[in-house]
Amino acid sequence: MAEKNIQILDQQGMLQNYAKAVLGMLPLPGAKAEGLPDRTLRIADVKIDANNLAEYVKVCRLRLRDTLPITYPFVLSFPAVMNLLVSKDFPLPAMGMVHMSNKIEQIRPISVSETLTIDVHAENMREHRSGLLVDLVTEITIEGELVWRQFSTFLRKQRTSLSDEPRPEKVDDSPGSAGELPTTTLKVTGKQIAKYADVSGDHNPIHVSKIGAKAFGFPTVIAHGMWTCAAALGILEGRLPDATTYTVDFGKPVLLPAKVAVFTRKTDSGWELALRHPKKEHAHLTAKIEAR
Predict the structure, then answer these.
(1) pLDDT score for 184
(2) DSSP character for 25?
(3) pTM recorded for the entire structure
(4) What does the DSSP 8-state code read for residue 215?
(5) How far apart are CA 17 and CA 20, in angstroms?
(6) What gap in Å lies between CA 291 and CA 108, rounded to an integer?
(7) Is 77:120 a contact under the CB 8 Å cutoff?
């Protein structure tokens, strides 16, 4: 994809982007394009902020090491992702989009001392029975070497030509579906998720404001999907291969405060994970970790 824009974003820019996201909910004629923008946003010369990394591993209950947690580059790329989502040439409004799934490919571990180049673009907008899906793709290179890539799939709920199709039957065979005991449990508080919002820069109202959450149909604030994505890995730290693919499907949101049950299962190719409600047993997250 041809590069058409290079931009470095700061924290103030992030706050402005959320204001743009709210404005994008309004029906302004001609404010949105029809197709995906044919451009890549780049953040160049990214150095790891040791204090931010330390706060991240603390709030996600991970260990501080000399290499980055596999999920941490999401935080580094988030300003570019938001910038793309709120741009006028992005066809879907950012607010109200649902993070459906996430796939991270770690080609090799990233050292905390390395300088990164982060590229973000959108691709593959397609219909779903519940709306439109689009992939936000992030690639991280170091001196031209691809070391990390992510596909974040978002859903914009609306009617499509597939909306009247029958709902496919889902079979849940992920860890915990057969009534086995959890490997461990996690307590999640509003204070903890507010801290994650500060660390990650993701101050979406559904995560930090009860009023904002109710405006989008939630009874209270919910945990970030990428917090659960990171925290779920805590139990497997030290047992993951350097070259790893981490695929996550998000289920029902975690309403705060909460206790979630964590289930793990060893497979021939790696691990399977699930985060579930301890009583209702529905899945908040199901995941696979496989060696590349």
Answers:
(1) 96
(2) T
(3) 0.89
(4) H
(5) 5
(6) 11
(7) yes
Tokens of 126: 């397609």
Burial of 280 (0-12, 13-18, 19+ CB in 10 A): exposed
Enumerate domains of the chain plus CATH numbers.
Answer: 1-163 (3.10.129.10), 172-292 (3.10.129.10)
Closest listed residue to residue 24, CA positions, set 80, 75, 78, 96: 96
CA atoms within 13 A on the CB side of 193: 27
pLDDT in tens, 149-167: 999 999 999 999 989 988 8
What are the two backbone dihedrals, phi and then psi, of residue 18, each rounded to the nearest 5 degrees? -70, -35
- In the structure encoding, which two tokens stand for residue 35, read together? 């197709």
- Sign of CA pseudo-dihedral 109, 250, 127, 76: negative
In the chain, DSSP assigns E strands to 41-47, 98-106, 115-128, 131-142, 145-157, 184-188, 244-250, 258-266, 270-276, 283-291
Where in 27-93 does DSSP place strands (E)? 41-47
In the numeric block, which tokens belong to residue 238? 């030290």
